[in-house]
Amino acid sequence: MDAFIDRLDYPLYVVTASADGERAGCLVGFASQCSIEPVRFMVWLSKANRTWRVARTADHLGVHLLAPEQKELAELFGGRTGDEVDKFARTAWAAGHAGVPVLTEASAWFVGRVEQHLDGGDHVGCLLCPVDSGTRPDAPHSTLRLSDAGDISPGHPAD
Questions:
Q1: Looking at residue 47, what DSSP letter applies?
Q2: Residue 136: which of 97, 112, 98, 102 has the closest Cα?
Q3: Separation between Cα atoms, residue 13 and residue 24, nearest integer Å
C-alpha cells in the first residue's frame, strides 16, 4: 500500500472547532467533498489530536484552504499542539457561524454543520453539511498540498 500512498499529493486544510468554551484547530490532510447533491464534505481528525477532543462535542467545524505561501500558518496549526500553545492568539481570526473560528488569512473557508461521526481507526470522520463560506478576494487559486508541507512534524503528543 505504501507505493500507492506515497504517490498522493492531496490538499491540506486547517480545521477549526469551538465547543464548551474551548477553541482548537489543526492541519488536516484526510478530507474531501463526498457528495454533490446534497453537498457534503468529510474531514478526518486524529484521535490523538486536541482538535478532536474539542470537535467531538462541536455542532459545527470550520474548514480552511491555505495557499502554498502560507506555510507558516500551516506550521502553526500542524506543527504545534493546542495542549501547549494558543494558536488563535498567534493568528487573525473571527467568530463565524455558530462561533466557529474562521481564519481571516485563509484563501477560502466554509463552516459545516456536523451531521455524523464515523470511526475510521486512528482518525474519526466528521461529515459536514456546509452552512456558510467565504473567500479572500486577493487570494491565489493555488492550494497548499502535502508536498509543500512534508517537513512539518505533527504537533500533537505521541501516544
A1: T
A2: 102
A3: 14
pLDDT band of residue 154 (cuts 50, 70, 90) is confident
Count other C-beta atoms under 10 Å from residue 153's C-beta: 7
pLDDT tier, 153 (very low <50, low <70, confident <90, very high otherwise): confident
In the chain, what is the straight-line distance between the N-terminal and C-terminal CA atoms, in Å?
A: 24
DSSP states of 96-121 as a string? -GGG-EEETT-SEEEEEEEEEEEE-S
- Greater confidence (156 vs 103) lies with 103
Average pLDDT, the chain: 94
Domain extent at residue 90: 2-148
C-alpha grid cell for residue 143?
492550494
Residue 157 lies in a domain: no
Residue 117: all three cell numbers together: 461521526
Nearest-angstrom CA–CA distance, 135 and 133 = 7
DSSP letter, residue 84: T
Helix (H, G, I), strand (E, B), or coil: what is residue 99?
A: helix
Quote the number of domains for the chain: 1
CATH number at residue 69: 2.30.110.10
Which residue has cell 489543526? 26
